Amino acid sequence: MLPYAQPVLECEDCDGTTRWLATKPPSFAADIVLELHGPNGRWTPAVVIECKLGSFDTHNVLAYAAKARSHRAVFPALRYGVLLAHWPAGITGKLARHGESFDFLATWKAEGPTDAEWDVLLTILRHELAAAATLRGLAAPGKSEKLKARWIHRGLMAG
After folding, report:
1. Within a domain: residue 79?
2. Is residue 67 part of a domain?
3. CA-to-CA distance for 44 and 22, rounded, in angstroms?
4. What are the tens digits of pLDDT across the range 81-121?
5. Rounded Cα distance, 8 and 22, in Å
6. How many Å apart are CA 64 and CA 55, to the nearest integer?
7. Positive or negative, the Cα torsion across 85, 90, 96, 97?
8. With 33 labelled, which of 9, 67, 125, 127 sits at a CA distance of 20 to 30 A?
9. Which pLDDT belongs to residue 37?
10. In a domain, 12, yes or no
């Protein structure tokens, strides 16, 4: 379960500082979550893969896209994608147009991957983990005044 919001019910003043009193955040289940672990034992979700078998209509695309945006509101470095299995059509124009919130889309023709499909997915996931690590470093708290990068490029691969 990954939180998608942090509701604040009350505020209080403590020694001139406002303290937010929050509840346990609401969350959505995600099919697969890849994590980045830091040296201090803490971790952050890096890549979410939502998996669907056989059918994925416009409603599903829009619902998963909203889910991706909600999770990113809490985890700004999170990469989000969809894997469609038993999907012989490949990525259609409609899926590409409505899937603007996804960092990657992958399809397998059958229920399980061919060796080539598996290799492509692993390559994509390596790129997404590296991107999440970079974004995590750029979004680190307390460093906003320091120059961290002069450019960011969100690459696109298709095949």
Report:
1. yes
2. yes
3. 20
4. 999 999 888 888 888 888 888 999 999 999 999 999 999 99
5. 4
6. 13
7. negative
8. 9
9. 87
10. no
